[in-house]
Amino acid sequence: VNLLDEAEKRGISVDFAHLEKLLGAPVVGMSARSCSGLTQMLERLEDLLQAPAPAHFQPDYGEILEPQLKILTDLLAGSTDLPPRWAALRLLEGDASVRQWIPAQRLLPCFPEHFVEIQQQLASQGLSEERVQDAVIAALVRQAESIAAQTVSTVTPETDARDRRIDSVLTSRKFGIPVMLLLLLGILWLTMAGANYPSAILSKWLFSVATAASE
């Protein structure tokens, strides 16, 4: 978990022990800019190399996608060196590159038929390959929000209140477009005319330096 220095400024704290428990994977807090926590991270990585511990966290992709994903995962078990569930999900998303990594001769004879059937069942429920991608992202975001709600707390909720107030003005429908147009006009003026003033000052200074040097 990086940027802990910024989190501290905003009064944000993270329960690393609980986060580690939820994810089933080692969690280390650090600040990369100051190298804080780097030693601890390397130590945890060394521990993993000595005794790998598989993560128990497994995203749930919903009542429509999850059953079909399980069927396809079982069909792929032993057919590829890729993690079966991960490969199954990529196939349902239409990732052609994953198919190249799955040896056809290792697939069950019934795999193509079952795969097409699964795709048809998902499509009948409104989940085309593109929609599967959307459903996967939405499910991951929901679960990330749930995990964050359990492990991240804000000691001072008003720490970034000023930034939020500024954002609410600059991104609002009433002020957002006028502000954007003013910025674009400013950039246009700077490009066509505004840059001439500092250029003239710089040129005058350089010529004065050159004249003084020649004398």
Description:
The protein has a two-stranded antiparallel ribbon. Helix 2 packs antiparallel against helix 8 (129-151) and helix 4 (62-76) crosses helix 5 (84-92). It has helices at 4-9, 16-23, 38-50, 62-76, 84-92, 96-100, 111-124, 129-151, 161-170, 176-194, 196-214, and strands spanning 12-14, 152-154. Helix content is 66%, strand content 3%. With 215 residues, it is an all-alpha fold.
**Strand ordering within the main sheet:** 1-2
Uncertain regions spanning at least 5 consecutive residues: none
What share of the residues does DSSP label as strand, in percent?
under 5%
Rounded to the nearest angstrom, the radius of gyration is 28 Å
**Structural class from helices and strands?**
mainly alpha
**Arithmetic mean of pLDDT:** 87
Overall geometry comes to: elongated
**How many β-strand runs?**
2
Note the run of SSEs as H and E.
Answer: HEHHHHHHHEHHH
